[in-house]
Protein 1
Amino acid sequence: MLAYLFERFPKFSQTFCYREIAELFRQGVRPAIFSLRAPDRGPELNWDPAIVSGVHQLPEGDAFARLANEASAALPQAAQKTLHEWRGKDDSLRLHQATYIGVRLQKLGVCHLHVHFAGMAARTAFWIKRFFGIDYSLSVHANDIFVPKKFEIGLPQIFSTASAILTVSDFAANQLRDRFPDTASRVHRVYNGIDCDSFQPAEPSPPPLILSIGRLISKKGFDVLIDACALLQNSGHGFRCEIIGEGPLLVELQARIDRQDLGRQVLLAGPKPQAEIIARLSRATVFALPCRVDADGAMDNLPTVIMEAMASALPVISTEVGGITEMVRNGETGLLVAQNDPVATAEAIAQLIGNVEPARSLGREGRKRAEELFSIEKNVRVLREILL
């Protein structure tokens, strides 16, 4: 039997995880699902009750401590010694989570555990294997491998004991093979997937709508997009720009909009449920996400919102960061510009909003590429071959 372990499930900002589970269910595979933390209470309202109701969320506080202690009492002497040696260390909670979950995995007959992100849940899976001998694999994404936090159980230990390491782009897969050569044969690229049929080809209406979606953080480059909008306004272009999402840079980005007198053109629209995002994509003219590599190395890898825009037959403007070039073919499905370059971003936007038919041609090719590479049905079948 297969099980999944998440730090938090479902999570509004990680719809790709939910989609993967939902497609597994559709294909007849119903993994047990464990979540270390409570699910998000964000605006996503269409989670399938058949999936969400079956999530085993770990209890908290005294209840968890009591149940974890009961589980650890049944461990072999060597494992109990390890628990004692790790008491008080930063990662000690992961060991107790492992004992609580491991006992339940054994009772369910689980023989393989899969984890998303090389973080908290991956370290818990490491100890589950150590204590109970249950193999695990993991899917890694972006900052968890590009700028990993320092933990007592780090990437070398996790990768050396995982049966398979999945990542969502060739860019990341090649980087991992170079950094961890001993694990190269266990690294697999499996793209995130979407249901392309859920997205309708965009039918924009004037004035042109520039759409962007993502968490309001530095690596998304929303400040660059706002500055590009200021240049467009100064050049006399008519347009609207909506940025959908929430995050720590909300106040800073709004101040940037206000300083440049863009309040009538640029809207920070806040987070939206998936149905509304699909609707906004269907009315947009162009999708822009000028991603950057931050000073600490943080960067996007394969932004799901780009494949959603491609499935909506929108031309995409972005940058050559991470695996984005595997999605956006410059001059074929969109335009790629330099990082941190509002002028180049503005010029690319002006080119697309001013030339309707060439822009639509890019969008049509993007839709074809999304169907070819990012079909959730195809990619989950590849995933199943690795995990099962």
Protein 2
Amino acid sequence: MTDSNPAFLTAGAAAAEIHAGRLSPVDLVDALLARIDGLEPKLGAFVSVWENDARQAAEAAHKAIGAGHAVGPWHGVPIALKDIVEVEGRVTMGGSQHWAGRISEVTATLARRLIAAGMIVIGKTHTVEFAMGGWGTNRHLGTPWNPWDLEVHRTPGGSSSGSGVATAARLAPWAIGSDTGGSVRVPSAWCGLTGLKTTIGRVSVHGVLPLAPTMDTPGPIARDVEDAAQLYCLLQGPDANDPLTLRHAPDDPLPALRRGIAGLRLGTMADSERAGVDAELLAAYDAAVDQLADLGARVETLALPQSTEAYGAMVGRLIGAESYPIVGALVDDPDLPLDDDVRPRIQLGRDMTASDYLRLLRDREAHKRNALLALDGFDAWLTPTTVTPALPVAEVDQTTTPARFTRPLNFLDWCALALPCGFTAGGLPLSLQISCRGHDEATALRIGWAYQQATDWHRRVPPGLDD
């Protein structure tokens, strides 16, 4: 263990130091809490910081590990939870001021699994209200500050905004997000992180506030692919409280992670999809594709049956249809303190009939089959994660979405990995998205791992926050 601040360690490195006896969980938690204390007034990543509980858990972990009673390799490693993940007896607001006093009556299955592994929950992170929005903004509870620009308030990405900011700013080694249309991947993209959108049914949603139940997928936000893969292993698995998790056996991506990508066939986006994408982002995307080819992958153009914008529009309708029965009565009440940018997104479902909804579900199945036919013979599809780098919050058009490249994967029930692939001339992160057919997270992680072994974008720290 060097004299460097342990808050800068990845989760995997922190775990190794703890279990080698070179780092105490107490010192790690102290370092993170000191960093939170200094930076949180500026960044606003957390809804609540569980300082006392985290310190007590760290003391207990230190004693247990020292006595030879570690419960596993992640005992003593902290994590942050998006504030849609329920923990019994705690407030879970889901980004809504209206729910400021809402006490959880259950603990989410994923939280139970993390705690059972000995991990320390350091706090709850901000989210867009009801997890409905890709920009990461929240009118009433505050918009976290993207740490890559300390002068201009830029979009952190949403809806898992606080999880992205906390992980990027080294306030937590990793965090939990959720992804219904890009809410793990967009914050990962704009905060220079690695985020995994899991296939629905891989990770239990029991105890996670719902938005659109046919597309909601919890997942990891981490600093590198290896941490994302390790956290995915902890999260996935059958849960009787979520029947979708019983349909597929867990799949460990770790044995194949370091296998390399020689011979894999990777699809690149058609020329028509390049329109409207930021020039620096396109250049970074092209360079990433060339890097993967240099690593031995076969790279060819792959055009899906529908444009990303067409898929995205259907996602918007589906989210509206499924979220309106859940929170429609709230968004329709003008007297409640709700985000007026979020209301119309939910209200897309207000006038949708049962016939409209069933027809959308039927059409979705046809689109899924056709997309799989297009993917036949390919191992993955490569796109940028977003269309632009992070924008100044003041310039955001809230009637639009930054999720053009992310939404289609939720609609098609594919999995996807977002990871850094460069920076703008002004120092803002740029991101590559690696999309694979459903339940093939192992391949997405394998490709991402190979890319990160050949590059160092994921190792960079926001300037001004690197000491």
Protein 3
Amino acid sequence: MFSGFYTAASGMLMNQRSLDMAANNIANVKTSGYKPKRLVKTTFNEQLVRQMNGQTQGLGQGSTISIGTREMTTHGQAPVVDTGQTYDLAINGDGFFVIQGTDGQYLTRNGHFKRDEEGNLILPGVGQVMGDGGPVYVDESGFRVGADGIIYDNEDGELDQIQIVEPDDYDNLTFYDNGTYGAGGGVTLTQVYPTVYQGKLEQSGVNLNNEMTRAMEVQRAFQSCGKALTIIDQMNQKTANEIGKL
């Protein structure tokens, strides 16, 4: 009977985690360059075998406790739309913009940039956009960004180049808010040169219809696990009462 408790409870915990992830994806449906996340699930037995023997076979086909092995982000090119805003930039291809924050370096596909009072190009609330020569400075009178990421002044003088990097392992990136990522010590970054569009933004990679459907499915699964837990508890109480009468 206790195994039933554990199985139902683990199902509730897993579905709650999946529901939170779906809700976060839905909340970022308008965040430029955001990539949706998924929870990779497995069973406790399968995970135990992997850790002990380095193998992938399971232990039978019975109902077992479920756990989450990792969170997976679906990286891929989302549609690019015109905004007409001078400071908006979009990457068409692989790679991330590099943002220098006060507490470290961030990677992002969100090119909804602004110009601060000192003339630096920034991602609001995160930090300064980095170029090959350091923080990107743009003149208020105007500038132009070529398809190769090179920044020009009004007289077509070359100022800098937008720094765009690609990690060797996307799965090892650390996810932060607003579609930003961190590259830990185990991630190697390589500078790449995809096409850069000015006056455009990459849309969120979230499909709202899919996320709403997934959220409803997970919520029903969560409710089912909750009902199962209630039934098991009632059965335990009934058994205890019967034993007490003996």
